[in-house]
Amino acid sequence: MKISFNKYVILRDMTLLVTMGYLLYFMFPFPPIIWRLLFVVIALIATSYRINELEKHEKLAIVFLCFNLLYFIISFNWLKNPSFTQIGNIICTLLAIPLFTSLGRKGVFTNKFIIVSFILLFIAGIGYFIDGFRVATDLQGNNDEEVTNNSGTVFLFLLPFILCVKNKILSFIAFVLCILFLLFGAKRGNLVCAVIPCFLFVKYILTDRGTKIREKILLFILLIVSCFIFMSQIEGNDYLLERIDDTVEGDSSNRDYIYAKAWGIWANSEYFYNMLLGYGYDTTVNHPAMKIHAHSDWLEILVNYGLIGIVFYFLILKDYIKQIFIIKGKRKKYVLISIVSIWFVKSIFSMGFTSPIMFVNLFFMGYVYSFNGYKNFCKN
């Protein structure tokens, strides 16, 4: 009997395993760069299979990646130790675009796979979160709970895909768990990014015509109960309350100062070519006026890669936004809006394409790209 294999299914499953492995890197006796290298290899293989079918946003991502790599290589001429971690983040994010588009277009992001992926990534995310808390407390030199756990971002990236769970009660439970982990992480930026996905999720489960009245009443009661749970968690977390109060009083962790410095470096450029092409890879961290990342993709790109970099990044996001107006069906549209809104908000106030786990968000972009031409998404 002849056994046939679908190469895209194999690549899809390998990608899921590698993504889980990266999140659980602390469990393995080798450095996390191994998982990154495996991810890059898979992405290159998947992309090569349809090299003649690449779409506009994929080509832009590849060109922008080459742009980043060129600047990284050249930076050795003036930087002693250019950040390999940063370029690794960028490579994984930009290669994830053609990888997940390829897998999506080949129709391998099935309902079953996306739900299994969510469950496995959620479990891996818990491990990633726990290790992130350990790292944060070690860096801060204390063992209490007053730390910001950036690893909670993984649950932010999982939020939009709870819509893919057909059973609304189960999806609601998963939704509550994701929000709780975001609150435990106490990262204000993640809470801000979660606003639109949360609103769309609640709106959908309460207004969906396919939901029975009895189920809607139960979901509404669960929503009220969950709000009390969230408020209880917030009120019991003095550190989170302090950070919220600081935000209300205008404390943005010095972002206003950082943004002003980054803008000043670019706007006060002596030469036009610096405004056009930037100052080079990792300039924000190595510039004497900053010595820190811009905490904004747009300003980071503006300083490092100039207006050319901004154009590339804008066109990549623009192509994703176009899908919102192409996709039919409220549920499908809400999923995509949630994904894009998270990426866009993070790109303004935090790190998007330079985030170490941005590819987790892009993982499900492959599912989005399977909307047009494939009937494997949960029926609306």
Mean pLDDT: 86
Distance from first to last alpha carbon? 39 Å
Topology as a string of helices (H) and strands (E): HHHHHHHHHHHHHHHHHH
What is the molecular shape?
globular
Low confidence ranges? 372-380
DSSP, total strands? 0
Helix content: 55-70%
By secondary-structure content and strand pairing, the structural class works out as: mainly alpha
* Main beta-sheet annotation: none
Q: What is the percentage of strand-forming residues?
A: under 5%
How many domains? 1
Number of helices: 18
Radius of gyration, taken over Cα atoms and rounded to an integer in Å: 21 Å
Can you tell me about this structure?
The protein has one domain (7-368). Helix content is 70%, strand content 0%. The protein starts with 6 loop residues before the first helix and ends in a 12-residue tail after the last helix. The chain has helices spanning 7-23, 33-49, 56-74, 84-105, 111-140, 153-158, 168-185, 188-193, 195-207, 213-235, 238-248, 255-267, 272-277, 283-286, 297-326, 330-349, 358-363, 365-368. The protein is built from 18 helices and no strands. 41% of the residues are buried. It is an all-alpha fold and 380 residues long. Helix 2 packs parallel to helix 4 (84-105) and helix 3 (56-74) runs antiparallel to helix 4 (84-105).
Question: Summary?
Answer:
The protein is mainly alpha-helical and 380 residues long.
Any key phrases for this structure?
380 residues; mainly alpha; 18 helices; globular; disordered C terminus
